[in-house]
Amino acid sequence: MKAAVLYKPNTPLIVEELNLSSPKPGEVKVRMAAAGVCASDHHWMTGDAHGPMPIVLGHEGAAVVEEVGEGVTRVKPGDRCILSFVSSCGYCRLCRTGSPQLCDTAGITGATLFDGTTRLSKGETSVYQMAKVGVFSEMGVVPEQACHKMPDAVPFEVAALIGCSVTTGVGAVINNPASRPGSTVAVFGCGGVGLNVIQGAKLMGASRIIAVDIYNHKLEFTYKFGATDVINSKEVDAVQEIKNMTGGGVDLAFDSFGSAITTSAAVESLRKNGTAVLVGLAPVGAEVPINMVELVRSQKTLIGSYYGSASSHETFDKLIDWYLKGRLSIDELITRRYVIDEINEGFDALSRGEDGRGVIIF
Q1: How many other CB atoms are found less than 10 A from the CB of residue 334?
Q2: Phi-psi region of 142 (alpha: psi -120 to 50; beta: other; left: phi over 0)
Q3: Between the N and C ends of the chain, which has fewer C-beta atoms within 10 Å?
Q4: Region of residue 276 (left: phi > 0; alpha: psi -120 to 50; beta: else)
Q5: What is the set of active-site residues?
């Protein structure tokens, strides 16, 4: 069974044969169908995110169930599934209080299955799976909780993107209590997640959606997904430009990139009573200087949004419905397709800032 393995940061992924053991109780063996090439995977490759190695990366995927372990009732062999990169336990405090996307048990057990062991190996060496799914692999064993059955009408490559970037971006808007029809919105960073924040703002009826990036070709691409205005922050002061466009600032600003510069700009671009939402993951240890006086006197809010701010499975259902009704553009996000042996080319394209999303097809 072929998989792309990271052995240490700042080295290419190694595509090689691995061993896969059978699913244990509560686990599901799946055959991968499609996987998205995401910046969160790249953070591991560059050392900006830390974890055990060797590891099969990939957390944005769709698959077909091949075999189920004892006690599995949610899916059966042959089911087509979106894979959630948070397998919520259902019993921790966060799960019980309605935030399964923040499951403590999933976080503590990390890149192993819930019993603390792995199903992948290379000889005598255990190989970890990113977020318990490790979708850069032809096959895998994942928790039952990761599997979300979907209709046959949803293509696998579309389903893969729903597994992360669409849910993270659209969900950050539609599941945010501050989102209201007629709001003005700024989106900093127009990669896969940023494009879906733009789609979420369009769905909620935003009156103006301002896309901010450093690449003109990426800004041009945003018009396809609902942007009404664009700003190249390398050419002008984005915050001042947003204030000029809106007469003082936006109601909502989203940082889908994740850096001190973009988060600070998102907060500064708000009007009074505005809300800034940090969606993109910054490098471990990154901090943001915030004008505390301005935050209080203008009554601004800064919040984080993880995996769409709600149950991924609940958001999946909404997104599938909207996609099938033609209200979400997901096929159009996919601009590059690769096979597993070309995966490093996919990450090179991501690093160059190319438009849209790359997808691995199995």
Answers
A1: 20
A2: beta
A3: N
A4: beta
A5: 38, 40, 43, 59, 164
Angle between helices 343-351 and 39-46 (to 10 degrees): 90
For residues 292-317, average pLDDT: 96
Tell me phi and psi for residue 111, to 5 degrees: -90, 15
Using alpha carbons only, what angle is made at residue 90 by residues 85 and 95, rounded to the nearest 5 degrees?
80
Q: Which CATH number fits domain 2-166+309-361: 2.60.120.260, 3.90.180.10, 3.40.50.20, 3.40.50.2300?
A: 3.90.180.10
Tell me if the pTM is above 0.85.
yes
Phi, psi of 162 (to 5 degrees): -60, -30
pLDDT tens digits along 78-100:
999 999 999 999 999 999 999 99
Lookup: tokens for 64 = 């077909």
Which pair of tokens denotes residue 204?
Answer: 């909620």
Does the domain at residues 176-304 carry the CATH identifier 3.40.50.720? yes
